[in-house]
Amino acid sequence: MKLEMIRGEIKPAGWLKEFLRRDLRGITGNLDKLFPDAAQDIFGKEKVVHKEDGYWSSWWTGETNGNWIEAYVRLAFVLRDSEMLERARAIVYNLIENQEEDGYIGIYVPSARYVVTKRYGELWTQSRAMRTMLAYYENTQDERVLDSLERMADNIVKNVKESVFEIPDEDGSKGHSLMIIDGLYGLWKYRKKDAYRDFCLWFYEDYCAHASQFLQDDLRMNYVFNPEEPFVGHGPHTCEMLRIPLLLFYMTGDSRFELAWRCGLIKMQKNLELSGSCKSDEFIGTYQCSLVMENDLRTTVFGGSLPLPSTAYEYCSTAELAIDYYEAVQITGDISFGERFEWLVYNAGLASKHPSGKMIQYLGADNMYDASACVNPRFDYSPTHDDAAVCCAPNSCKLMPLFVEQAFLQKDDTVIANLFLPLSFRFAHAGGENEITETTEYPFRYGVKFTVKGAGKFPFAFRLPSYAKTFTVTKNGAPVAYETENGIVSLEGKLKKGDTVAVEFHPEITVIRAVDGTYALSYGTLLFAKDIPADCKKNRKYDLAGFWDCDYTPKAHEDWNYTLFMDACGECAKAQIEYPEGTAYPLDTPSIVINVKALDRYAYPVDLKLVPIGATTLRRTTFPVLCDTQKIYKI
Length: 635
Known about the structure:
By secondary structure, this protein is an alpha+beta fold.
């Protein structure tokens, strides 16, 4: 059964508030000052013609700007910052006020609109504008925005009549164009116009019917249904396209699309790193042999993915996979996608992001020994990565606002806590205005207290994480009856003003095996790693004070060559959780660590301290394991 998001006013607290404020002071609040393309009024007065320069095309500016304005609008509503909200309105109303008489909203001057060539950025960039406008509408219910979106969608349906994919795609822009379905689906939910659904079906079929020159065919029907065809394409394309069959299933009820979605999920699972993101550096597939020519198309031969802990994942892939889970929770009603979302954000999402909020890695990895441009220009920490492409920087800014938006869901009249975050949430429900305050240090501690204010009475439930083999729950300090079904714990009775529900999850340290036979440790929803102390070399200063491109390299004589002990039960020897005192911000100074016995490179037993992967810049996450430890225990 479909789960629905509850729209309301979020007030972050604790570490979450600090995290989001750092985003505001960092990339999200300043990308337009750091990179001119983000500031260009490309959907307004500064439209462009089609230009090419090597692999660069003029649609890239629309991608950068469009992804950034969506991130900015979403953060504005999560933080409820008055200046941000005013600017968010100005961003969206600029799109509306520059809409053409025929409904067109896009980046191109009239002569370049809807012109299909080997590179075609029209629909991709329009989808970015649509997502921004939908984010604003869903937080304001401003009907003028939805009316404008409808005129925009009508213009697209009217003008895109011939195949977009028949001419092979040269630079990935046509594959990205498939994401216009993302925007039209968002509008169809509210206006239910058959023309939008029918266009989405036709457009996906057009994609499925034509092979591409650029590697972006993973979600074609004949590929996704074939178990012998592994995912090999450009990671961000495959990750964003993964949800297209799911959206089509919701719009049509056609079970073929649900099956395609499920088959895609199975294939995606084979390509995930331990931290949750998709191996994509920049392609999912592993390079197999030389270039070949087939049907006059230059094709690189890739085989199935090998998501080694040292292979990279692109931040765009992380962000798009997160949106897949965001949609899947609601459409399928399977709340386990909330857990996948959580794991992805807290591990891969944080691992590639600097705690300051001012830098990210374009490409990150679970085992990251050197984050410098000399290894790979995409591995260093940068607020823009404009030496590669400014796609990951704005996409990274969407991740936490999207995550926070889905803190609470509803099923019928039951309010469900999907995510556990320090915040207050005001919402209209069950006949009145209500407020739930979550008091927690989750995911660094595993207790959560929900306190209710307001006039309404409502049934209450929460997601039960799979790691919580046991848990306790009380209401107003006393045990409360509950039922557990499909990963949801539903409390007996209803909550009302003054009620407090306290939940304590009881995780255990868990050993996880990587594809190369090495092992990592997790606790609850966090993956742990050996932090490698690093030197930071600032190698590029931006005009805006406090922003740099930085190389991180290991400090002299640092060592990360360790072997873990494992006993006969498959548990790491003497692994214990510790909660250091006096931590200010848990991503600056970890407030939870795992202490475990290990061997150093000389086979001497040592105590090894592991911290959450999101609190590191350089790290080793997976280790070889020694299983016969009886003699070593006695040392």
